[in-house]
Automatic annotation (TrEMBL):
Keywords: ATP-binding, Nucleotide-binding, Transport. It comes from the Bacteria. GO terms for molecular function: ATP binding. SMART domains: AAA. Belongs to the ABC transporter superfamily. This is Polysaccharide ABC transporter ATP-binding protein. InterPro entries: AAA+_ATPase, ABC_transporter-like_ATP-bd, ABC_transporter-like_CS, ABC_transpr_TagH-like, Bact_Polysacc_Export_ATP-bd, P-loop_NTPase. PANTHER family: TEICHOIC ACIDS EXPORT ATP-BINDING PROTEIN TAGH. PROSITE patterns: ABC_TRANSPORTER_1, ABC_TRANSPORTER_2. Residues 26-250 form the ABC transporter domain.
């Protein structure tokens, strides 16, 4: 392994055996074995995972629940052994997979620090050298001789997290621990992560917070169904994760297909990329079959998925057509004044009496992820999405 590589994950696969039948008889077990009945199924959690973490990287691992992230961390931490492949580590690893694991409520805060340090592989002398930093960061000077069971939940979290990040290891692994403690402690943790990012120390972070991935990480990997989907640039990985989640998210409980014999084969196709910046136009194509000699027009809305409100809509009559046959129209508009936001396109076909006669259900309509890259990470006001409607600025083109 190169001297510059801290962690190398090389074609790692992992599966678990899930029992399908219980047998108390040795005879039955042997008979089943000769018949080829294993008595279990294999659940493949990781499938040929490979990536490298260089020394000094702040590396993000993201993926939906059940994607295999935690299993991968336990393999890197040598808690699990992979069925195939291997993980090579260069340096002392401090793994913090769950807050407070290994803490004993009957021991004092001080005793828990030393016990947890021992579990992480540090000697008493090494914990002695780190002890003051741990207590200073946790801000629990007056409570270290009290039993842990007398701590509030927030105090326990602060102590556990402080032990993890102040342990002097070469590689730090953190799993879903960015939202610990109160607001003041979170700001302190943020400052620590920014310092660690600049210090050249290696960190592996597992999180569902894509803003954290973009803010702290210089590299990232997206795992989906036990496979590597995207690896490399953290913005690209975070945007793909956000888009995948938005694509599987319903806008409302009204996600139904309105069927009508007058209109069939309604299709909505995005002509631009799904992930765009505010300076890029959005363009899409709508086509449908009219089976009677009637006038029809299209009304649509672009909806904020997270809040369920309209951001942009157009129900003008500029696209009205008459007669039967296949209708194909395109629309282009700009959402230049929005910040980071997940959007979904909802389309309806209406007749001359303004009655909706067809509707493209949101479960099958395009998802658009608008991503700002021109503002500072700590500018929270600029990262907030716009709350009002964007003035209509688009234009229809009829391609009958």
């Amino acid at each position: 392994m190169s001297n510059n590589i801290a962690v190398k994950v090389d074609h790692v696969s992992k599966y678990f055996k899930l029992p399908t039948e219980a047998s108390q008889s040795l005879r039955t077990t042997l008979v089943n074995r000769f018949k080829g009945i294993k008595g279990y199924t294999e659940q493949h959690v990781l499938k040929d995972i490979s990536f490298e973490v260089e020394k000094g990287d702040f590396y993000g691992i993201v993926g939906r629940n059940g994607s295999g992230k935690s299993t991968l961390l336990k393999i890197i931490s040598e808690i699990y052994v992979p069925e195939k492949g291997k993980v090579t580590i260069d340096g002392k690893l401090v793994s913090f997979i769950e807050l407070g694991v290994g803490f004993n409520p009957e021991l004092t805060g001080r005793e828990n620090v030393y016990m947890n340090g021992a579990m992480l592989g540090f000697s008493t002398e090494e914990v002695d050298a780190m002890y003051d930093d741990i207590v200073d960061f946790a801000e629990l000077h007056d409570f270290m001789n009290q039993k842990l069971k007398n701590y509030s939940s927030g105090m326990q979290v602060r102590l556990a997290f402080s032990v993890a990040i102040k342990a002097q290891g070469d590689i730090l692994i953190l799993d879903e621990v960015l939202a610990v403690g109160d607001e003041a402690f979170q700001r302190k943790c943020n400052d620590y992560f920014m310092e660690r990012k600049q210090s050249g120390k290696t960190t592996i972070l597992v999180t569902h917070d894509m803003s954290a991935v973009k803010k702290y990480c210089n590299k990232a990997v997206l795992i989906e169904h036990g496979l590597v989907k995207v690896v490399g640039d953290p913005d690209e990985v975070a945007n793909q994760y956000s888009f995948d989640n938005a694509a599987g998210q319903k806008v409302s409980n009204d996600d139904v297909v309105v069927e009508n014999p007058k209109i069939t084969n309604l299709q909505v196709k995005l002509l631009t990329e799904n992930i765009i910046s505010p300076d890029q136009d959005i363009s899409f194509e709508i086509s449908y079959d009219v089976n009677e000699d009637i006038e029809t027009y299209i009304a649509f809305s672009i909806t904020d998925i997270d809040r369920g409100i309209w951001i942009y809509n157009d129900n003008s009559l500029d696209n009205k057509t008459s007669g039967s046959g296949r209708k194909t129209l395109t629309y282009k508009c700009s959402l230049a004044h929005l910040n980071d936001i997940k959007l979904k396109l909802q389309v309806s076909i209406r007749d001359n009496d303004d009655q909706m006669i067809a509707f493209a259900d949101s479960a099958n309509s395009p998802v658009i992820l608008l991503n700002r890259t021109d503002i500072e990470d700590d500018d929270k006001s600029a990262k907030d999405s716009a709350t009002g409607m964007v003035q209509r600025n688009g234009k229809w083109e009829i391609k009958e």
